[in-house]
Amino acid sequence: MSARERLYLFDTTLRDGAQTAGVDFTLQDKIMVARLLDRLGVDYVEGGFPGANPVDTEFFSASRTERAVFTAFGMTKRTGRSAENDPGLQGVLQARAAACCFVAKTSDFHVVHALGVTLDQNLEQIRDTVRAAVAAGKEAMIDCEHFFDGFKANPAYALACVHTAREAGARWVVLCDTNGGTLPDEVAAIVREAIHAAPGDHLGIHAHDDMGLAVANSLAAVSAGVRQIQGTLNGLGERCGNANLVTLIPTLKLKPDFAERFEIGVSDEGLASLSQLSRAFDELVNRPSNRYAPYVGANAFATKAGIHASAILKDPRTYEHVAPESVGNRRRLLVSDQGGKSNLLAELARVGVEVDKADPRLDLLLATVKEREALGYSYEGAEASFALLAKRALGRVPDFFSVESFRVMVERRHNAFGERVTVSEAVVKAMVDGDPLMTAAEGIGPVNALDVALRKDLGRYQPYISDLKLTDYKVRILNGGTEAVTRVLVESTDGDGEVWTTVGVSPNIIDASFQALVDSVTYKLLKAGAPAEGQPS
Fold first, then answer.
1. Is 179 helix (H, G, I), strand (E, B) or coil?
2. What is the DSSP-derived secondary structure letter of residue 406?
3. What pLDDT, in 10s, does the model give residues 477-511?
């Protein structure tokens, strides 16, 4: 096998990702993201525009990566100023970064109407900026903004911008599909033309996802000759986002068309951390993870149908295009009204419930699952409730406590400061070892009040649940009208760092919530090895 060519990965999450609506990186966020990317094995981490705001200025006061090339972003110098007298350019050159990436207009329309300069003046700006960066000892790059649209309108000028940047000493000249409107075959054809202006091992691709084609366009550009790919974690970016490096990396490493021709800086170990990294990044930016994301989504290797599950158990390649473990994900054979015994056995094994496949109680358990899902329960996202349901059917859940009754009151009133407030109060009556325990608590809402009241005093079980806390609460109305059914998912965690989800279903949202809360407490007691009711502690 001949030596593979090197592909370089350039991450722009801290610039392009920061343009996403609702995303605002703090300094510590930026430092953490840079470390995540450095450990993953990307080649370049672009940190933003030094001088644009106090956070970016502080971020560039030190180099933030050990392996990856830390990169500052900026604009080409302004017409009428020398490179030495352009404060924006000098701010980028003086940043603690080994490389600089400058955005340049390469569409004649944008040069004339956005910059307000002549075509020749724009070429001069590109040339002088690159030379200044090289003279400062930086690795210089030019992002050719609106390159593909510019090429379609005036190919000679767009290519002149590429040639000028490369001739001035740019290590990389990056072709940008800035509005995300170019098709893969167009990208490939235009890249092949661009190689006449600069060799492919000095060309990059920067694709936006406005048609959902950023990953496809990036791969088309690589096949046509570019050797640098720019993108972001989870495809974060303005409008519809940027090329998703989390999708591109496993494709480049695992698909023979690319893996046999190219190598990237991400190791097999880095690839196996990809699912965790993707979800950790979503947590950092406070966004729900996409369960359907390629490779790393929770449902990327999930199936319901029983016949599919049987085939997967015999040969996973029949329905899985790569091994889930290679990207740090896992196979999920969902227990549902469409699944059969193969799904059930696989899911029982996954949640740690050992059972003989000939056990007659399995048929009853499967029927119970299907009956409850017909009522609105869903165990695909509530594995703790499924584990309890299964263990109860198999006689493996002891009696810890029982709830005799609960009551919730919501009152709007004026507090001592004369402010109008809404207060929720809950009362829960439980039985532990035959003794009644009644607790009351206030909360910021009825569910919070119930949660606090339920866990306030469970007698001798209190030490087992002292580190239990509710971390998320989701509600879905399953059917509208006056007979609406509500499904509630409650996510909980404890001091061990384990996270689990429980489900409740009822026409009454409070009742559904309380079911899920009781399951969460019961799961914690079972997990902690608490003794059954009547047994010594």
1. coil
2. E
3. 887 666 789 999 998 999 888 889 999 999 999 99
| pLDDT in the model for residue 310 | 57
Other CB atoms within 10 A of residue 292 CB: 10
| Tokens (6 digits) for 33 | 């993201």
| Sign of the torsion formed by the C-alpha atoms of 362, 365, 370 and 371 | positive
Q: What is the pLDDT of residues 48-65, one digit of tens each?
A: 999 888 999 999 999 999
- Measured CA to CA, the distance from residue 534 to residue 16 in angstroms comes to 60
Residue 114 three-state SS: helix
Sheet containing 469-477: give its strands across.
469-477, 486-493, 499-506
Q: Which amino acid is at 74?
A: G
Q: How far is 360 from 363, CA to CA, in rounded Å?
A: 6
Q: How far is CA 4 from CA 7, 228, 252, 327, in A?
A: 9, 15, 12, 22
Q: How crowded is residue 468: how many other Cβ atoms within 10 Å of its Cβ? A: 19
How many Å is the Cα radius of gyration of the chain? 29
Nearest to 150 by CA among 120, 194, 204, 116: 194
Backbone angles phi, psi at 206, to 5 degrees: -130, 100
Confidence of residue 338 (pLDDT cuts 50, 70, 90): very low
**Do the strands 5-6 and 262-263 form a parallel or antiparallel pair, or are they unpaired?**
parallel
- What's the CA gap between 527 and 417, in Å, rounded? 45
State the DSSP string of 82-142: -GGG-HHHHHHHTSS-SEEEEEEE-SHHHIIIII---HHHHHHHHHHHHHHHHHTTPEEEE
Asked if residue 254 and residue 109 are part of one domain, the reply reads yes
CB atoms under 10 Å from CB of 325, counted, come to 12
In a domain, 287, yes or no: no
Helix axes 245-254 and 214-224, enclosed angle (nearest 10): 40
Phi, psi of 231 (to 5 degrees): -170, -175
Sign of CA dihedral 135, 77, 144, 40: positive
Are 232 and 345 contained in the same domain?
Answer: no
Tally of residues, the chain: 537
Residue 3 structure tokens: 């030596």
Spatial distance between the Cα atoms of 40 and 266, rounded to a whole number of angstroms: 6
Please check the confidence at residue 332 and state whether its pLDDT lies above 90: no
Given 368, 391, 414, which residue is the final one in a domain?
391
Look at residue 476 and give its three-state secondary structure.
Answer: strand
| Full DSSP string of 464-489 | GGTT-EEEEEEEEESS-STT--EEEE
Q: Which structural domain range is residue 257 located in?
A: 5-266
What's the structural domain count of the chain? 3
H-run or E-run covering 121:
helix 119-135
- Which one, of 97, 122, 125, lies nearest residue 109 by Cα? 122
Strands 499-506 and 203-207: unpaired
Tokens representing 194 are: 């661009």
This prediction has a pTM of 0.72
Could you tell me if 373 and 336 are in contact, meaning their C-beta atoms sit under 8 angstroms apart?
yes
Report the CATH number at residue 210. 3.20.20.70
Same domain assignment for residues 310 and 438: no
With CA atoms as reference, report the closest residue to 7 among 197, 192, 259, 207: 259
What residues pair up with 474 in beta bridges, in sequence order? 489
